[in-house]
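So, is this right?
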Amino acid sequence: MAKNKVFKLTKSGELYAKALKAEEYNADGFGTQEDLLNGMHKYYPKIDYASPVTVIKWDNIRGKLVDEYKSRKVPSEMCNSP
């Protein structure tokens, strides 16, 4: 069954947006907490520093989107850029 795994969850946790560390928002391509909140407003219009967030980290991700990303054929709608 191990062959069917698409990723390995390495860490998960909930905290408030204001408690996010640089390592966590940088991993998603954001330079600051403010950049993260501005980027997330598209999906979560009411998000602010007091909002609870979930941080999920994983390894060994496999699949079509990962393969496209690795080969830099990422569809434009998947990018964080406005």
The mean pLDDT is 76. Residues 2-78 form one domain. DSSP finds three helices and two strands in the chain. Strands lie at 8-16, 52-59.
